TrEMBL record:
This is 2-amino-3-carboxymuconate-6-semialdehyde decarboxylase. Gene3D superfamilies: Metal-dependent hydrolases. Pathway: Secondary metabolite metabolism; quinolate metabolism. GO terms for biological process: secondary metabolic process. Monomer. GO terms for molecular function: aminocarboxymuconate-semialdehyde decarboxylase activity; hydrolase activity; metal ion binding. Keywords: Decarboxylase, Lyase, Metal-binding, Zinc. It comes from Dasania phycosphaerae. It comes from the Bacteria.
């Protein structure tokens, strides 16, 4: 059964000193600690330990073979987005990391693919970069779910999404810069609580604002981590839409009727959760995503789908490869 992993991350082995380059502090950097291991730094603070699968394509291919992954699609680690920086600096970073991604893919371009990043705080520059990257071989773009206080229904971001449709770029939305971090100082709670909430917020921003009524149906957009808390709480949203006019003010149709406008990945780590996700979204709207090679990702990539006790063979094939081929136009 062919397997395509839509949601994985990369980091270059090294990159220029961005603090020195731009003259401002607290940029991400890589500190190699021992052979094959490193620490992502943000300024002088440790952010995340990583290992060479992030930057070494031979190791990545070896691990793909171990898990029977035919194709893996790489996206930047969101700490590299630089949305909070001046647009020209974020554009410089985007070009640097996008070119680095293609360098990694060149090791085996049939099996390694990439999504680009863009300076989403500067819509003109973002449109220019996604166009450049689509011309150079990227399959689409990964964006964060917000830029500062702007959610996905921001007029500028909608302009960018319309542009993505026009250049045939698939869009993967990944949560970042999670809400209420000051209330969650321990236990990785921002990743466990806020990430799912951020993802649901990004989906509902497009539904409740009426944005999906304005976006072309040709737009291919997918939300990471199973769409966060969206599927589990969709009944609550529909109930609110039915009984409160302020909820349906800009949303002409029942929120659950929009599930055919987007995809989600399968990174939910539980049989019952995946069954619910497929029931809510439909088996043609869920795509295998592992979050490789990070500890919160699926450790036996694809096993949740392959070994699922109730999904049909056709559903498994759709999730493991058919949906990704349609989403990415492979």
């Amino acid at each position: 059964m062919k397997t395509i992993d839509l949601h994985s991350h990369f980091l270059p082995k090294s990159w220029p000193d961005l603090a020195q380059r731009f003259g401002t502090p607290d940029w991400p950097s890589m500190r190699h600690t021992e052979a094959g291991k490193a620490m992502i730094m943000v300024g002088d603070k440790e952010f995340r330990p990583v290992y060479e699968a992030c930057w070494n394509p031979a190791v990545r291919i070896e691990e793909m073979d171990k898990h029977s992954i035919d194709i893996q699609v790489m996206s930047a680690t969101p700490v590299l987005f630089a949305y909070e920086r001046p647009g020209h600096q974020a554009a410089d970073c985007a070009k640097m990391f996008n070119d680095a991604a293609l360098d990694i893919c060149d090791h085996n371009p049939q099996r390694l693919k990439a999504l680009c990043q863009v300076p989403l705080q500067d819509i003109d520059a973002a449109c220019a970069e996604v166009t450049r990257c689509m011309d150079n071989g990227h399959l689409g773009v990964q964006i964060g779910n917000h830029v500062g206080l702007k959610n996905l229904d921001d007029e500028g971001i909608l302009t960018f999404l319309q542009h993505c449709a026009s250049v045939d770029a698939a869009v993967l939305v990944h949560p970042w810069d999670m809400m209420a971090k000051e209330r969650m100082p321990k236990y990785m709670l921002p990743w466990l609580v806020s990430m799912p909430a951020e993802t649901q917020l990004s989906i509902l921003s497009l539904i409740m604002s009426g944005a999906f009524e304005r976006l072309p149906k040709s737009l291919r957009i997918c939300f990471a981590h199973g769409g966060g808390s969206f599927a589990f709480l969709l009944g609550r949203v529909d109930n609110a839409w039915k009984h409160r006019d302020i909820v349906r003010e800009d949303c002409p149709n029942l929120p659950s009727s929009y599930v055919d406008r987007f995809y989600v990945d399968s990174a939910v780590f539980n049989d019952d959760a995946l069954a619910l996700l497929v029931k809510v979204m439909g088996e043609q709207r869920v795509i295998l995503g592992s979050d490789y090679p990070f500890p919160l990702g699926e450790q036996a990539i694809g096993s949740l789908v392959r070994e699922h006790p109730s999904l049909s063979g056709d559903a498994k094939q759709n999730i493991l490869s058919n949906n990704a081929q349609q989403f990415l136009k492979l």
